[in-house]
Automatic annotation (TrEMBL):
Protein family according to the UniProt entry: Belongs to the bacterial solute-binding protein 5 family.
Tagged with keyword Phosphoprotein: no
Keyword Signal applies: yes
Stored InterPro entries: SBP_5, SBP_5_dom
Entry-linked Pfam families: SBP_bac_5
Membrane-crossing residue ranges in chain numbering: none
UniProt domain Solute-binding protein family: residue ranges: 1-166
Protein name: Solute-binding protein family 5 domain-containing protein
Source superkingdom: Bacteria
Entry keywords, A to Z: Signal, Transport
């Protein structure tokens, strides 16, 4: 959502230039005020990663396309953290929604289909018709399956239920090879079905 960023000389103020063509799925316009609210909310929230914004003293809209992040001290990791969950944005109108954890209101390329989703098992998404970059959305629907362990994941790949998977341990490498798949380092990637 940021198209440009610049630090001041002491690296304690980061000014982000934001897109002005983004709308949240509830129709709310994304703007620097929404970005500032999200950053403060993440810093003060319950996320296990809230330490990502520990150096954030304040965030304020400067004008219609700029937000300034004031830091307590220079933080060389801040830009990296903003590419992770610390930088995710949701509609400020949804902050108090009772179903916020199961019905997110974001601005991404896909919208969670709560009628087809089974929380903790599979998450079904449909293309966001109002996404700011429609040329980058390649699928009308997206399905994300939650698998309990590496064995379940490998079985799903072998059974043709997945197009790809990332294994986080090397304990099943022999089984991966025996099934005819290749793995770089610690991951299994299959392109079957694509």
């Amino acid at each position: 959502m940021a198209t440009k960023w610049e630090y001041n000389d002491t690296k304690t103020v980061l000014t982000l230039t934001l897109r002005d063509d983004v709308t949240f799925t509830d129709g709310t316009k994304f703007n620097p005020d929404a970005a500032a609210q999200n950053l403060i909310r993440f810093r003060d929230g319950a996320s296990p990663n809230k330490s990502f914004l520990a150096s954030l003293a304040d965030a304020n809209a400067v004008d219609d396309t700029h937000v300034a992040l004031t830091l307590t001290q220079a933080d060389p990791a801040l830009l990296h953290y903003l590419t992770q969950n610390a930088g995710m944005q949701e509609s400020p109108k949804a902050f108090g929604n009772a179903d916020l954890k199961t019905n997110p209101v974001g601005s991404g390329p896909y919208i969670l289909d709560t009628t087809k989703t089974v929380v903790g098992t599979n998450y079904e998404f449909t293309k966001n018709p109002k996404y700011w970059d429609p040329s980058s959305v390649h699928y009308d629907n997206l399905s994300i399956k939650v698998l309990a362990d590496v064995t379940a994941m490998l079985n799903a790949v072998k059974g043709g239920q997945l197009n790809g998977a990332k294994l986080t341990v090397n304990t099943n490498n022999a089984e991966v090879e025996a099934a005819g798949y290749m793995y770089p380092a610690m991951t299994l990637v299959t392109l079957s079905g694509l």
